[in-house]
Each structure stands twice: as C-alpha cells, then as structure tokens.
Write a structure and sequence with these properties.
By secondary structure, this protein is α+β, with helices and mostly antiparallel strands. 22% of the residues lie in helices and 26% in strands. Strands 16-20-23-26-27-28-29-30 form an 8-stranded parallel β-barrel. The termini are far apart.
Length: 771
C-alpha cells in the first residue's frame, strides 16, 4: 500500500520534532471511493512487525513499513474503529498494547488552561502532573506538563525503556503538553524528556508529581492520593469554627530525619505485613536508617503529646535531593519526601496527629529553588520558573534561583501548592520560609547586583502580591488554619488581613525578640543590669503584629551553640538560665515555638546527619529539664490568661520593668474576663531575694502556680510555700502588694485564689454573726 502522508511528516515524528503527533499517529478517517475507511499509523522503534487488533471484530490487520523501518501504517475498511490494540513483535518477544494516540480527547479543558494562564486555577494539581484516568473504558495514566518554550516533550519511563521517541506528547493551549498512556498503573517511574529549540535534551522530574524516588535517584512516581481513608473528620470540622489566635499554640519544631533514627537491620513493617524499603541516613552512618512516617506516628506523636505541645512543625517535608539543605532546597513541591515512606504513610501520620489532638504545621519554601538538573531550573530550556536576569533570579548567598512571581503560571504553581498541602494532606498550617528574601529585591545583594522595581524602590511588588493572593485564598478555603511568616524586617502589616493592605499572614515570627533574648541570656548575669532594655523593648511593638516567639533550628547550628550552651555559668546555672528564659518566653505575649532538643538540654549543636542525644536522659539534670518543659506546657494550656489576649494591649501590663539594678521585672497577663489575670515575677540573676515586694491589683491569697526553681526541675527550691497573702501596702501605684521570696535565676507565676478568698469572707461573716 502507498503511504497516506508525506515523508516530511514521517521524518518529523521519527526525529521527535512534531508538536502534535496526533496529526500523524493513531487512527485517521479518510474518504476513499466514496466511503470512510480508517488509516492507523504507529511509530514503534525496535519493532519488527505490528498488527492492528480489533477485538470486537476478532480481526487482525498487518501494518506496513515502507518509508521508515519503524513507521507502520495500515488501512482498515470499517465505518467504526474503537479500542483497537497493537500487537508488536520485537525479535522473539511479542506484546499487545493500546495505542496511546487513539485517545485524543484532552483531560485538560480549554477553561483549565485559561485559568492556569491567568494564575487562577486553584486546583491545577488535579490537572497537571500524572493522574490515573479512565478514557473510553481503558485505564491508564494521563500526563500533562507546562513547557511553553520546548520544541518537543516526551514521557520517559520503565514502560518504554526510557526512550523519548516512543511517547511523544502533544502541545496544547498555553504551552501545556499532554498524553494519555493506557495500562500504566500506580508505582510507574517516569520523567519528562524536554527538548529546547536547539535540540538539547533535559530530563526533568514532574513539577506536579505526587511522589519521587528516594535520593540520589530523581524519577517521579505515579501516585494516587485518593486511596487513603481519613479518620479526622471531627478535628477538621472543629477547626473551621475556631479562631486559632485565641487558642494556646505551643509548637514542637522537628526535623524528621534527625529526631530519631533506627537500625538498618530492623526494617519497618507495613500494615499488610510487608517491610518498607530501608533508607540509610548517610554514608557516614551505614548502620542507621530513617524512621518511616508510620513509625514516627508511633513514637513522635506520643512523645510530643506527653510533653504538652499543641502542634508539630515539620521542617520541609517536600521532596529534596540534598539532606544537608534540611529540606529547604525543594525539587518536588507536590511530593512528600520518600525518605520516610509513601504519600499514604504521611497521610497516616497527619491523621494520627489529629486523632491525638495535635496540629501539623509544615515549613513551605516559595522563596527559592535549587539548580539541580532534574528540577525546575531551566525547565524547558529557558528561564521558565526563574527570572532570566540574574540580578532578580539568583540568590548567590544560597546558590539557588528565585521564582518569577510576575509570571502567572509560576504564581499559580505556588499558590496551588500551598492549597494542595491543606487539601490532600489535611495539614493545619504553613510556616513560610525566608519571607524577607522574597520581599526585598536587594536581599543579600551588593550595590549593582540588583534592580529596582518600577517605582525605583527595593520592594518586590510581585512577591508581595503573590503572598497576599496565597493567604487570601488559603483562609477562604480553609478557615481556622495558620499561615506563619518567617520575616525578619520591619515590613509593615505582615500579619494583618489583606483587606486592610496587609500580607495576610495570621502570625509572624518575632525575630527581634529572639535576638534580644539570646543576647541578654548569653551575658554574665552581673552585666544584665546594664541591658534591661533587651527584656522590655519587645513590648513597645508586641501588638503591632501577631507575633510568634520562636527558638528555632537556625539558632542551634553553624557555631551558634545549642540552647543550653548559650547560657553562662556552671552547669547548675546553665540549666537555671534556660528554665528562666523558657518561662519568660511562655509568660510573654505571643505564640510559642521550640526546636527539638531544647527539652533535652543537648550539649551539641543540631546535626542533620545524626539523631538527638537521647542518652542524656539517663542524667538527672536533663530528665528534670524535660519534665520542666512538660509542666510548663501543661500550665500554658490550662491558663487562658497566657494565650487568649496575646495580640491585645488589654492582655498585658507591667507591674515594674525599671528595676534594672536587680535585673528583675514583674508583669500581669490578663484573660478575656475582667477578673482573669496572673502575676509573673522574673529574677534574671543568681542572687535570691527573700523579701521582694511587688504591687498587685487585688487583695487575697496569690497561689504560686509555677516556680522555675522548683526542686523537681533541678532548682534550689526557693519559693513561697505555695503562695502569699497580700498586704495593704501600696506599691507600684497599686493598692495591695506581695512580699515574695524570689529564687535565683527563677520565674514565679502566681494567681489570685478566689476560692480561698471566698472561704475567708464566709468565715469572717460567720464570726461577725456569732458575735
């Protein structure tokens, strides 16, 4: 038979240079002698013979190759051709497949691609990427990827011997390439072969892939996120109706890979009885492996719950190739890292957290991405996700690239990604990393290494607009969640709503408070009298934003010393200083975050390739510090005055902040009710005071709720025997006062015992009645 298309068309297919292979390959109806016949064409490298199999007719039709040995064609005289198959002989092997080019209807609609091009497709992750699909009764996987400047794109995988000639994709609207490949299933490994205009080949992981191989491998894996059955309906329903800013928030920040490791010789068990693949921690620790998400659910969740934290914050859980980046150089934004298991395993971890009453926060990194060849960098041979101008598109300090927030599709990729983690994984909040690096065009750049915005300023207007869009949509879709900014500058209204011009976060890390505290507590206590401002200055701006107080992973690396190591003095004083610091932190307005190991008093800096120094818990001071953190969290969660008015002037007032000679401050934290308050007194030196008087607003018995110097925490056990009665002695412009014993390097938290006051009143009235 003669070929029905030109040799030029065939050469474009054979050379992988056709942007719409459906124009040539697959079934085509043609008119011949006044009737419709079908022409089927296939390009099958390595094939020696091919037949079209029509199951409904129980017939086979041999295909011919005339112009190229692997380009086949045949004519079939039938009015209807549906669900045919190809029988392929390659040497002595034969196989039967459905023809991918017989399935022409795009999974992605014109409206989908239009919304994406506008930057407004909020669930684009359900369209781009790899998705199980049933097309015309045939199961398979639909692939779609955005690569507008590519000359050609193909799907590579084990299913086609990683040969880019075999599954060439079709270019549709707005630069989206797609192809349905029949009979592929969950678990298939794949990549995209992207060719630029010069024919250079880039093998890329799927930007929207739901799962990737464990490093150092880089292929994406077909995954189905709909198979997990959630059991957190009560948690999710309650979350929608809660204002988190009026709730206690005490966060345990954790890096899953270095919290605790297991032995390689002890593989993890799956629910079906099979064992998880072993993922070694490092070549330097050949006997250690990562815990799986399910093992972490069994060990980490009970530990965090026992310590009294309300949330777990995970350092970036998205897929990343380099362990030493701590997860902050992401290549798979839509995939949880495979180091710890499958997507369903991570869903199980989140589900178990919710069932145990613990929220899950995830660090999210929309500010930059690495240059790894399989990632987003130069994705289609051009600067697609990043700026072309290195003065805007590079972070030289980190060796990474910066997203082009002005490009609608890039902004859509990031906005949808934030929503994705809440939608598919039920997380309760994100902590957005390095917001300052996004907001300022001159961030870590020297003069001449950056360009101004259109108004001549240093503000990155496109990045600010992106953050506003993301936060607005986040709280629209998922009320009750948290969006936390790690922002270290004075950019205004970071945690204010977008409708008043803010960036829309509902919390911001208080970096100024953190630095002031660590500077203050690293001093010898004698010098603290000259630096009282470190303690008090934060209240000057404490209510300008919704602040979170954080001692994070960044403060215990790169030679900064662990938290216990920052404290001055001998071992006893180091522990006392740390207890004093943490108690003041929980007394200060703002939500709380502590990095793992703080509760242990670990002597070494955090090491991402090791686990925590759990052996320290055999020693009394470390055991007692852990108990201290547990009791501090318990007090915090049970005492609304410490959290209900974190962001209002009504929730805080100084009693006395001017006693710098003794390095003592006293304050009141108030709750919503007029009569709800606690009194906090902090002694920041090792010098105890047996008779230290402070003014209080009401008379009665003030119960000592908490004493950081208690014996059970390793302290000297100086205190007030459970509490003190007031005297009618006006101090600090208040009608009553307390004569307190202040412990060394200690913090007292006291509360008026109204039950005891009522009992005394009743007794007094009874005595008067008897008289």
């Amino acid at each position: 038979m003669s070929m029905t298309i030109s040799s030029e068309q065939i050469e474009r297919i054979v050379g992988n240079q056709h942007q719409d292979p459906f124009e040539v390959l697959g079934p085509h109806a043609i008119e011949q002698d006044g009737k419709t016949v079908w022409v089927v064409r296939a390009y099958l490298p390595n094939a020696d013979g091919v037949w079209v199999v029509c199951p409904e007719e129980r017939a086979e039709y041999p295909m011919q190759s005339t112009q190229h040995p692997h380009f086949f064609e045949c004519q079939i005289d039938t009015p209807k051709l549906a669900n045919y198959q190809l029988r392929i002989r390659e040497g002595e092997d034969e196989r039967v497949i459905y023809d991918p080019y017989a399935f022409r209807s795009p999974y992605l609609t014109d409206f989908d691609s239009h919304l994406f091009s506008e930057g407004n497709h909020h669930r684009i992750y359900e369209k781009l990427g790899a998705h199980l699909a049933n097309v015309e009764g045939v199961q398979g996987v639909y692939f779609a990827v955005w690569a507008p400047n590519a000359r050609n794109v193909s799907v590579l995988g084990d299913f086609n011997q990683w040969d880019g000639r075999k599954h060439q994709m079709r270019k549709g609207n707005h630069g989206i390439w797609d192809l349905f490949i029949p009979e592929l299933e969950v678990g298939e490994r794949y990549k995209y072969e992207v060719k630029n205009e010069a024919g250079h080949i880039y093998e890329k992981s799927d930007p929207y892939g739901f799962q990737h191989e464990v490093r150092p491998k880089t292929a994406s894996i077909v995954a189905d996120l709909s198979t997990y059955t959630w059991n957190d309906q009560d948690w999710m329903a309650a979350r929608r109706h809660i204002d988190p800013l009026t709730q206690p928030i005490s966060v345990y920040e954790v890096h899953l890979g270095s919290w605790l490791n297991a032995a390689v010789a002890e593989p993890a068990q799956l629910p079906n009885g099979e064992t998880e693949p072993v993922v070694p921690v490092s070549e330097y620790r050949p006997g250690a492996r990562f815990l799986t998400y399910r093992e972490l659910a069994e060990r980490l969740i009970p530990y965090v719950k026992d310590l009294g934290f309300t949330h777990i914050e995970l350092l970036p859980i998205a897929e990343h190739p380099f362990d030493g980046s701590w997860g902050y150089q992401v290549t798979g934004y839509y995939a949880c890292t495979s180091r710890h298991g499958s997507p369903q395993d991570f869903m199980y971890f989140v589900d178990q957290c919710h069932q145990q009453g613990i929220g899950v926060l995830v660090d999210w990194v929309p500010g930059h991405f690495p240059r790894d060849g399989h990632g987003l960098a130069s994705f289609d041979g051009t600067h697609l996700y990043e700026h072309a101008d290195p003065r805007k598109g590079e972070h030289k300090e980190w060796g990474t690239l910066v997203f082009n927030y002005a490009r609608n599709e890039v902004r859509n990729f990031l906005v949808a990604n934030a929503l994705f983690w809440f939608d598919k994984y039920h997380i309760d909040g994100i902590r957005v990393d390095a917001v300052a690096s996004m907001l300022y065009l001159d961030y870590f750049r020297k003069e001449g290494e950056w360009v101004t915005n259109q108004y001549g300023g240093r503000e990155n207007i496109e990045a600010a607009d992106f953050l506003r869009q993301m936060n607005h949509l986040l709280f629209s879709y998922f009320p009750g969640v948290l969006s936390i900014a790690e922002e270290s500058t004075s950019w205004p209204m970071v945690s204010w709503p977008t409708y008043v011009g803010g960036l829309g976060f509902n919390l911001k890390w208080n970096m100024g408070w953190m630095h002031d505290m660590l500077d203050y507590f690293s001093m010898d206590p004698w010098f603290r009298q000259f630096h009282q401002n470190n303690i008090t200055f934060s209240i000057m701006y404490a209510f300008s934003e919704n602040f979170m107080l954080a001692f994070s992973h960044d403060e215990v690396v790169h030679g900064k010393s662990p938290m216990i190591g920052k404290m001055p003095g001998d071992e006893w004083q180091k522990f006392a200083n740390l207890r004093c610091l943490l108690t003041y932190m929980f007394a200060h307005p703002g939500k709380k975050t502590l990095f793992m190991s703080t509760e242990l008093g670990q002597w070494s800096e955090w090491n991402v390739w090791s686990d925590l120094e759990w052996h320290l818990l055999q020693y009394d001071p470390h055991q007692k510090l852990q108990q201290f953190v547990k009791n501090l969290n318990t007090l915090y969660r049970s005492e609304p005055t410490l959290y209900t008015q974190d962001f209002s002037h009504d929730g805080f007032e100084w009693i006395d902040c001017s006693d710098n000679r003794h390095s003592i401050v006293s304050l009141i934290r108030r709750g919503k009710g007029e009569k709800e308050f606690v009194v906090i007194v902090c002694n920041f030196t090792p010098q105890p005071h047996s008779h230290y008087r402070i003014g209080v607003p009401e008379s009665g018995f003030y119960k000592e709720l908490f004493n950081s110097d208690a014996r059970e925490y390793g302290g000297s056990n100086m205190g007030n025997l459970g509490g003190k009665w007031t005297d009618e002695w006006s101090v600090h412009n208040r009608p009553y006062s307390l004569d307190l014993c202040l412990p060394p390097l200690g913090v007292l938290i006291l509360k008026l015992d109204r039950h005891k006051l009522d009992a005394v009143t009743v007794d007094a009235e009874s005595e008067m009645s008897d008289a």
